[in-house]
Amino acid sequence: MKKSLLYTRTGDAGTTSLVNGTRVPKNSPRVNAYGTIDELNAHIGLLQAQTAFLDNFVNETLLRVNNLLFNIGAYLADGSEGAVPMLTDDDVTALENAIDTLDSMVPQLRQFVLPGGSVGASQAHVARTICRRAERDILTLSDSGAVVSSLVTTYINRLSDYLFILARYINHATGTPELTWQK
Q1: pLDDT tens-digit readout, 44-72
Q2: What backbone torsions phi and psi does residue 167 show, to the nearest 5 degrees?
Q3: How many whole angstroms separate alpha carbon 127 and alpha carbon 104?
Q4: 22-27 contacts at long range (C-beta below 8 A, 24 or more positions apart)
Q5: Burial 128-163 (b: 16+ CB within 10 A, else e)
Q6: What angle, 0 to 180 degrees and rounded to 10, lies between the N-to-C axes of helices 89-103 and 150-173?
Q7: What does pTM read for this prediction?
């Protein structure tokens, strides 16, 4: 019987190969960083499935985010110190524009919002918290001596802001009341 290409057995001892061929522990800061990006990307995919009914603006933004997160994950998995493929300052600006657009469509924020509301908004909040963890993991990688493009941390920081306003927008678009923090 021919062995499946889905498993290699090379990681059974707790190491994995980076794109450049270097073997590192699976719990290294680099693997944690790109692993969290991968987790975030999967949750963005789930968010897309739950919000497919929304306007094309949201769906196109989320699809672009999916692609850019894949690029960021590949960049982090590569271990090289060059530019991030297919990520530019314009991508950060596009997220900022999307944030501004959605923010203009929801009521002004007057209280702290709790994660929740509709299923889609709740999923956006889950993705937001994973995004914040990805940011921390990327900073840990950088603190370990790895060179990480500042564009990556800027994009991930802005993405968490986008996911917050997207959650608010989803609740607004579905007529779901926001849950607010009661001290």
Answers
A1: 999 999 998 887 889 999 999 999 999 99
A2: -60, -45
A3: 22
A4: 22/79
A5: bebbbbbbebbeebbeeebebbebbebbbbbbbbbb
A6: 20
A7: 0.91
